[in-house]
Give the backbone structure.
Amino acid sequence: MKVLDSDTYEELPPGTVGEIFMRSGRGATYKYLGAEARISPDGWESLGDLGKIDEEGYVYLTDRRGDMILSGGANIYPAEVEAALSEHPDVVSSAVIGLPDEDLGNRIHAVVQISQPINEDELRVFLNERLVRYKVPRTFEFTTDAVRDDAGKVRRSALRDERS
């Protein structure tokens, strides 16, 4: 496995988030349902996972390439924003998506499953202590319904389609 820049296919240094590419071992084959493999010019394959490899060779997945939000020229990984939201004691779960925005391209929108009512302004202050400003969602939607399925998966494309 190696981490490459998604656009240039250049290998990234340890600890840098990029697209995870892999090459199967001798005689090994695999089939992944739900994604078409992307192949680098030198034959490595990616299924769209983003992550990093540390100095010791451990792989850390951070998100999916298709879920990344481009807002105002910045790349925002939903998993990072969701992790910050999950630190709030009244947040059960969340799903962060990009919704079309005339000025920014996409605006960050958070669908937040709560255990009790939350004041939106207080949540913004909470997130401002954990995220850089441009990663804090511009809009919130609070619900008591589950935002993830029983396996913990979020269907971001369905959430985007329902709100666009």
About this structure: The chain has a mean pLDDT of 91. The CA atoms of residues 95 and 111 lie 5 Å apart. The radius of gyration is 17 Å. DSSP finds three helices and eleven strands in the chain.
